[in-house]
Design brief:
heterodimer; A: Alpha-Beta Plaits; 32% helix; B: 569 residues; alpha/beta; Rossmann fold; 38% helix
């Protein structure tokens, strides 16, 4: 890596696989706070391996710093593995929900086309309000947001990122490799 | 098993804690009772013949004592304190142990679980507060969890890169009952303490070392933690490589050895600092390239191929970009490395250290180590103690000028002989740490060097020394200043002595009031006799030496400057 790349601020997605223990999120955020890195988005959920949770954290930073942060995250006792990716290495989505007055939806010309064009769908319609859902990248959900703002938007919420990596190696393979690379047997003189 | 006879019996959470500590081989606890830990103290009353409890005077003292104990015994230091202020008072000690990788298990009492989060009396979120300064922590809210969590705590404190662990136990968990059984923790799914040595990396390291013409070894704390001093000696002597040491690596290599180049860093020796920027291969073992070692990073060892051996992958390329990293236990890495490193001679290279050594000797060491007139200097006190104890004592220090002087002038003969607060620079560490060190190694002389500033931060632990009969030899180097800060004010702040002058009590009277034999030394002619008396005493003993008030410690690398720019005056 040359020094130019080191200095370039880019968007990185960090995936952390961990035990589901109380307080781990706190330990994780401390690592970002200490280095004054702002977390752009954060999503946590159980992975496909029972008991193992996945944190998806989006930050803007330098590669050198992201690498150090990922290593410090991986050092946490309850963390199995931390990966970091640039945006082109992952497939990712965010989900956004928009609430509009139903009168506005039915009354305004072009809104239906707009919803259709953006691939959004209607989740719920009541006499008072209508909720629309759009899944995509932030730029897309943001674009729709800007358009819907002109239609008396009542509420808006966007989720954190969920991401799947393009490399084919599975987490379990990583973990097996990691296991292989470590000695578990207590050393003879480990008298404590 | 230490507690096999109890297996299957119903015990309280408090008794389970006692039994768990016995299972982990604990024989000393440093603690202070209080409301939320009373059930545990009640259980301890029945186990006091097997678990020696040292009653400190402040919880910070308990943490530092456990720290000092752990550093000299290679065992885990154990603290026991109450909730709220008892727990928060531990924090400095935890931070100190965390940054210096010292294994500790600290047990804190907590309010009963139904009261958690309700701002109950003496409730504090110690799990939250201690998170950045512990390797791991946990809260126990039920008696049945005690053995499992304590087993995990000891496993994590001691293995891999060691560190402090905190376990918070609610009062209802202490009172509650469980069926006793114990199983040691030997692995965790998410924790990988011992990276396997990769043979190709070792071979590459050996190749670099064998080809090197100007190699230099930097020995850090990791050498002592992993017990790699024999391997270090073998590597250095076989390949004829000079060994420089970090502050915490001191005593891993004998100070008087012909290959010992001295201490690195801000107040380290002249030669190893300069030679860091002249060597062709730098072999860093068990250290983390702290800024006090490297000075200005942009001009640190740029010419050298750097081999970094450390157990913690997060330390690799953190501060200094390296040529080759070996993520492994230092002893294992060095043992494997020895199979590939050839006999070598670097006489020419080693000779180049001589002129720097001579220059430092003439400019700094000789005038300070054996001055003939003027007030007593810290340097000569340490030098005399080193001679009198033949380098065999365990030296404990506080933080500041006297610490650097002790590190520079004590001639260590045995590994594990230097106990000091490195990364955190914790004033107040010395006195309680010396108590822990003496309790851990009653067979060795423990000498504490402490300044008049740091001494007053934990001075109340004199009470612990008296009550628990801990025969520590205390040498107070009194310059009536916060000396290191004053030195910086002198050098970098136009001598504006902003609040660094101390008006001190009569320390001899203070020590006497605690029932400790105490003397004061003002003139050089009395020094030997008074040191003799101090060191010969079977009991704890105290000597205050009035030293030159405005003496500066050299060599010095000013903050932000290159190691090449180390100044001798």
């Amino acid at each position: 890596m040359n020094s130019e790349q080191k200095k370039e601020i880019r968007e990185y997605t960090i995936n952390v696989f961990s035990e589901n223990h109380i307080g781990l999120l706190n330990r994780l955020t401390i690592i970002f706070t200490r280095r004054k890195i702002n977390i752009e988005s954060l999503t946590v959920s159980e992975s496909h391996i029972p008991g193992i949770h996945c944190f998806t954290i989006v930050i803007n930073s330098y590669e050198d710093l992201v690498r150090k942060v990922a290593l410090q995250i991986e050092k946490l006792v309850d963390v199995l593995k931390a990966f970091y990716y640039t945006t082109d290495q992952i497939i990712y989505q965010e989900i956004a929900l928009y609430k509009l007055p139903t009168g506005e939806v039915t009354g305004s010309i072009g809104l239906e086309t707009l919803i259709r064009d953006y691939g959004a769908r209607v989740l719920e319609v009541t006499p008072e309000y209508t909720v629309i859902e759009k899944t995509g990248h932030k730029t897309e959900t943001q674009e729709l947001l800007e358009k819907l703002k002109k239609h008396k938007l009542l509420e808006f919420i966007r989720s954190g990122r969920v991401a799947i990596t393009k490399p084919m190696k599975e987490l379990t393979v990583h973990l097996e490799e990691k296991e292989m690379a470590f000695n578990y047997i207590l050393k003879e003189d480990e008298s404590y | 098993m230490a507690t096999a006879s109890k297996t299957g019996c119903t015990v309280t959470g408090s008794e389970a804690l006692m039994l768990s500590l016995l299972e982990e081989g604990v024989d000393v606890i440093f603690g202070y009772p209080g409301g939320a830990i009373m059930p545990v103290y009640d259980a301890l009353y029945d186990y006091r013949d097997r678990l020696r409890h040292i009653l400190v005077r402040h919880e910070q003292g308990a943490a530092h004592a456990a720290d000092g104990y752990a550093r000299v015994t290679e065992k885990v230091g154990v603290c026991l304190v109450t909730s709220g202020p008892g727990a928060t008072n531990l924090i400095t000690g935890l931070a100190n142990a965390m940054i210096d990788s010292v294994p500790m298990v600290c047990i804190t009492g907590q309010v009963a679980s139904p009261l958690l989060g309700s701002d109950a009396f003496q409730e504090t979120d110690v799990v939250g507060i201690s998170m950045p300064v512990t390797k791991w922590n946990a809260q126990i809210t039920s008696a049945e969890d005690v053995p499992r969590v304590i087993a995990r705590a000891f496993y994590l404190a001691k293995t891999g890169r060691p560190g402090p662990v905190l376990v918070d136990i609610t009062k209802d968990a202490q009172f509650g009952e469980t069926t006793w059984s114990y199983r040691k923790c030997t692995r965790l799914r998410s924790y990988f303490p011992y990276p396997k040595v990769k043979l190709n990396e070792i071979q590459e390291a050996a190749r670099l070392i064998n080809q090197s013409r100007k190699p230099l070894i930097l020995a850090g704390h990791g050498v002592l933690i992993s017990g790699a001093q024999d391997q270090l000696m073998e590597l250095a002597t076989r390949a004829d490589i000079p060994v420089a040491s970090t502050l915490l690596g001191l005593s891993a290599f004998p100070s008087g050895h012909r290959l010992f180049a001295g201490m690195l860093g801000m107040h380290g020796n002249f030669a190893p600092n300069v030679k860091t920027n002249e060597c062709d291969v730098l072999i860093a073992v068990g250290l983390r390239f702290d800024d006090r070692i490297t000075g200005r990073l942009e001009s640190y060892a740029r010419q050298a191929k750097i081999i970094h051996i450390d157990i913690d992958p997060a330390e690799i390329n953190k501060n200094v970009p390296v040529t080759l990293s070996v993520v492994a236990d230092a002893r294992e890495a060095l043992s494997t490395l020895l199979s590939y490193v050839k006999e070598n001679r670097h006489t020419g290279w080693i000779d180049t250290f001589g002129s720097f050594r001579t220059e430092e000797e003439e400019t700094v060491i000789r005038p300070n180590r054996k001055p003939v007139n003027g007030q007593i200097k810290m340097d000569e006190v340490v030098h005399r103690v080193s001679e009198m104890t033949q380098g065999e004592a365990v030296v404990v220090t506080d933080v500041g000028q006297h610490q650097m002087v002790a590190a520079r002038y004590y001639m260590f003969q045995r590994p594990g002989s230097f106990v000091t607060s490195g990364g955190l620079g914790t004033m107040g560490f010395g006195l309680p740490a010396s108590i822990g060190a003496k309790i851990g190694r009653p067979d060795r002389d423990v000498v504490l060097f402490v300044g008049d500033g740091g001494f007053q931060m934990t001075i109340q632990e004199l009470g612990t020394i008296t009550q628990s009969k801990v025969p520590v030899k205390i040498i107070l180097l009194n310059n009536q200043f916060l000396g290191m800060v004053r030195q910086w004010q002198d050098m970098f702040f136009r001598k504006r002595y902003s609040f660094t002058e101390l008006q001190n009590p009569d320390f001899v009277n203070v020590a006497n009031a605690y029932g400790i034999h105490a003397e004061r030394c003002i003139i050089r002619e009395d020094l030997d006799e008074k040191l003799d008396r101090l060191l010969a005493s079977d009991d704890s003993s105290f000597l205050e030496v009035m030293v030159e008030p405005e003496h500066n410690v050299f060599p010095m690398i000013p903050t932000g400057e290159s190691v090449s720019n180390v100044r001798l005056e």
